[in-house]
Specification:
The complex is a heterodimer of chains A (283) and B (111). With 283 residues, chain A is of the alpha+beta class. Helix content of chain A is 60%, strand content 10%. The longest helix of chain A has 22 residues. Helices cover 38% and strands 23% of the residues of chain B. Chain B has four helices and four strands. The chains are: A alpha+beta (283), B alpha+beta (111).
Amino acid sequence: MDKNICKKIIENKKQFIPYLFTQKQINVIEKYMNKEILTNTEKVYLYSTIKKKVEALSLVREEFYVNGQIIPERIKEAKQILREINKEKAFISGSFLYKKDYNDIDIYIISKKRKSYYKNKLHFTCITEKDLKNPIFISALKYSIANFSINITPEIKRPELNDLIITYEMAINEVFNKEDLKALRGLIFEYHLHLKKEILDSLTLFKKVEEISLKKDKERIKEINLFAKELFLNLYSKTYSYNYFTSFLKTLKEDLKTEPYKNYFVYIDLFNEVKNECRRAQT
Amino acid sequence: MNVEELKHNIKKIFGNEIIFNKEFDNYAAKIKNIENYLIEWCTKLKSGQFVPLRPPKLINSRIFIKKIGSANRCIVIKMVNEEFKEIHLADHNYYDQKMKELGLKKSSKTY
């Protein structure tokens, strides 16, 4: 139930009694808001009559925040979707807001549990209040139609080196396998987050990836290598990186001997470069 | 093409030893024109046109991923210097779970 609406009802209860709520109903709302234990009768009362009235009132509230330059028709559509789903805290982001042709509509709902599911073209992602501090969700929120304002302090965590290596390898594979550059998106995001100290909004991020996707494969690989190299060299200590890449390269060269896939050569070149720069920096 | 036909054609490409995940039939029936996506991709995969990922938690295997629309994924697992072993077809949640098992995705859920 929308707690902001409940709070307002309690604060202005004189105006609501007896026209919209009875005194008894207000008492139950107060108990619910104070997290007091409700009797079974009160619970039935709360979830049958009161909840429906509060939901109806939240429809009247109509507070929307338009974050970023969005296709005007899509603003209307997005607001209508938010009205229909009628959640206390929700926002719509992604390609639906900036592309004429889009695959799905990304709807984020702040809830108690994490969940992700599709309903036709609607892609629902339920995240917790804590998840909202994750820069990836702030990026989505920075370019969105939301029913709440952006006032969130991000929780920025440095990625583990092995996770960053996987993202890099995936980005290289996407080029060789002619796939969408999804991992590259992650790499660019991390680069700006940690090295430029900025959270890119989803449209800016899309444009940066698109710019690279228009280049030839060789150029794409060069760009991916540049982003990855900067991250590898600047996020971790030189000694740690040197030791990690020394042992990582040993395994990788063994893998190359057994099955020489062409992506391994690209990995080896970059990891050697990083390792050597780390060694030089140490001496 | 029905699901059994599709599986038969995949076996023709990868061999009879290939194992399908439990959800394969369900998703193969649900995804429109799945044969158009899968057969061509599997044929190219078999002929060595794609490069793999090396899963940290399954060091003797190689992983190939195919995006099918925005919601579904196909993962093929091949043993090093051996044949293709498993084919998994399912939605994004299954894919995330499988990638975590293989050590290719962080354990905390990041969408």
